[in-house]
Structure formats: structure tokens, C-alpha cells
Amino acid sequence: MTTPSSSPFSRRVVLGAVAAGAVVPATACGSGSSEDSGAAATRGANGEVRFPAGDVPVGGGRISATERVVVTQPAEGEFKAFSAICPHERCVVSAVTDGTIVCACHQSTFDAATGERTGGPAPRGLDPLPVSEDGTDLVVRSSS
User: Fold this and answer.
1) Using H for helix, E for strand and C for coil, what is the string for the chain?
2) What gap in Å lies between CA 94 and CA 97, rounded to an integer?
3) pLDDT in tens, 67-94
4) Which of 86, 61, 57 lies closest to 71 in space, CA to CA?
5) What is the distance between the alpha carbons of residues 84 and 28, in angstroms, rounded to a whole number?
6) How far apart are CA 75 and CA 24, in angstroms?
7) How much is the pLDDT for 43?
8) What is the CB-side half-sphere exposure of residue 144 using CA atoms within 13 A?
9) How much is the pLDDT for 142?
10) Which of 18, 65, 94, 140 has minimal CB crowding within 10 Å?
């Protein structure tokens, strides 16, 4: 026998939103924790993914689940980009917090500056992607 959940969201609704490719921006507060804010990433010409550079906080990052890209800013003016697909079970990473990229599926963690695996069951780090600045945007060459 099952009991009704007190949550207004069913597991199906939440998983449906994730499967639909919701953008999960991860921006830093005082502690570098993830918060939902900022503009969405967009797909540009030649398959590139564009993020507003001003939306990527120092010590934090932004994730586009739709485009499967994570962009970080480990130090002022230094931008890094990685595939947002965790190499463990192919989940999209969920947060950038205190210099760490986190996959909520099985708690794998990755260094936000290098993409290297720092913990959890992932067999390796995140795949690096080329990133450049174009005016106020960051342009990432995504393989997806």
C-alpha cells in the first residue's frame, strides 16, 4: 500500500522537467553555492553554445542541461567549459558549488577548474570543451 506524498510535485513531473532539458544555472552566492538565476544558454551558428559571460560567477558556474554544457569561472576572467554529461551513468551534472561540479545522480564530483574527477563512482573526469569570449558572451564548441 502506498501513501500519498505531501509534495505538490510527483516524481514523474520532476523527471519530466529534467528530461525536457531544463536549464540549470549554477551561480555563486557568498559561499559559491548553486542558485537558480540568469539567462539561458542558446545554440548559435555552427553548433556553438553561447552563455552570457556576466552570468558565470567567479568560483561558480552555469549548466545548460538542454545543451549538455557546463561553464565555470575558477578565477576572475578565466573560463572553462566541459561536457555536462557525467561519465558514470550519463546523467547531466546538477550543480557547481564551491569550485566543485556535482552530479546528483550518484554524487560524483569534479574539479570546476579542470573537470577532473574528485570523488564518487565516475570512472574519469568530464570531457573538456573549447571556450572563447565573443563580446559579452562565452562561446563553447559542443560535441552534441
Assistant:
1) CCCCCCCCCCHHHHHHHHHCCCEECCCCCCCCCCCCCCCCCEECHHHEEEEEHHHCCECCEEEECCCCEEEEEEECCEEEEEECECCCCCCECCEEECCEEEECCCCEEEECCCCCEEECCCCCCCCEECEEEECCEEEEECCC
2) 10
3) 999 999 999 999 999 999 999 999 999 9
4) 61
5) 18
6) 21
7) 80
8) 17
9) 73
10) 18
For the chain, the residue count is 144
Tell me the Cα Rg of the chain.
Answer: 15
pLDDT tier for residue 10 given thresholds of 50, 70 and 90: very low
For residue range 43-56, what is the model confidence (pLDDT) as tens digits?
Answer: 866 778 999 999 99
CA-CA-CA-CA dihedral for 76, 78, 82, 88, to nearest 10: -60
